[in-house]
Amino acid sequence: MSKTHIADHETLERVAIALESMGAASVPIFNDETGRYTNSSIAAWLAKMRDGKNYGVSIPKGSSTACTKTGANAGIANPKPGVIGRAAIDPYVNQGAFFFVEVNGGVDADGMPYVTAIDGDGRFSRLDDTWVLTPVLYTLENETDNAVNLTVSDTRQPGMKRQPAALLPNGAQRPYMLYAKYALSVDADGKPRSVSGAQVKRFVSHDTGVSLMKTATTGDSFKTAADDWYVKAMFLLKYATKNSQSVFAGCTRYDVQMSPTVAESNTTRVVVAKEKADQILIGSSMILGTHTGTSNDRGNGYNYDVFDAATVIKKVDVDASNTAIYFDVVKPFTTATTYLLSTVPWRAGACDAVEGDGSPTSCTDGKQPFVVQGIELGLGMYEVLGNVLIQYTGTGTVVYVNPDTKNEKAGSSPDSALSAGAFPGQAAEGWNYALYCKTVNGLMIQQGTGASTSVGICDGNYKVADTTVGWREWLSLGSLWNWGNAGLWCVNGSNGSGAAWWSFGSRRSANGRSRGEAA
User: Fold this and answer.
1) Which residues share a beta bridge with 285?
2) CA-wise closest residue to 399 among 468, 493, 506, 496
């Protein structure tokens, strides 16, 4: 017989409020033999916390960025995001459909998620693979001439469907949903991770994700449309605006490069002009290269051959004109005035000290990542979706979403992929701005044209000319120099499915294996 015990109420600090009125039978049960909580006990625990309310938001199809909260969502104030030392004020904490908790765990080859630790139980660590656990949500999305109306609940109501990826390939409903808290990193053995403090893995593409994640044997995949949908839906419901960067700018205006002003040896600092150092944030990441080539592009090895993604730990003025930037590095290094120092995407865990939604010191300065519903985003790089591709047909575009990434392949979408319609935009190459969004086959995709960075969706999507023939990857969120083009709805659709560069990253997904849009 399996040896089990019930997690201690008092140690489940993160969910203390939710547990107050619950009996011991509702608490997740840990199985010592498997090293996991039983999925049935987690599902029962979540069921006990349901509030059955329908939280809605009406998304206007026109140029207005303001949305309207409806149903049980009406009258709930928008959260006030926090920074380190000032917690967010969030009226949605522990409420029904918005409940989440951080856990350690993963996914089995058949797509079934599992949990090995829950924040507060004495086992949990952000140095182990960390996920945000939520209940399976139920949704109703309908259109009028003027709006798309989205309703979400933790309890199925008449007419509602299960959220994207809620069904496993065998048709069974997941006991809960898992979303990677952190951007993708890899350990010394090359294993994909979702852990705090790690250097994020760059130089990835849709196609490298197929080979790296090995979904058929691991159940793991690159970030999926379902992961993308959850963040977008939660943001719309909580903040009631289509302009995501008005709340969280992300690291999208942090393109800073400089040369040392003083040559030093056996050092852990780089001395630069004070005006340049003033632009650099403590806690952010930088690269230093010997810069033996002619290009300043961060993707060239000679621009990160001294150190790669080292964290800025402090800045000290040397004199009136120069400042020393100190780095957390394993060993000292040498600098020369011909070297090049550059900002790069932040390391995972930059927002760990932020309580609730928010950023380390500013949500809108354009230099920092942010966290929404426990998920850290906007580190200064695109995030590749592993189950979405854009096909340019020579006369237009079609966006394809593959429900089961076990069948995902390099170079094109499999026959099992579902159409999400056209990639919005004009026929010519360039940035385009959609008016609104809606969910099609599990992907919350932009709709309409003619907006800008200040009206409509506000986030840009870049497409090549409709006369192009071939497949392009779905690069979401934006890079550290995208400014107003970036945001939750930003998509760069110009790069081939195998294109990989320094500003391309992703994250793990436990939701790659699915039967498709749930009924």
Assistant:
1) 311, 344
2) 493
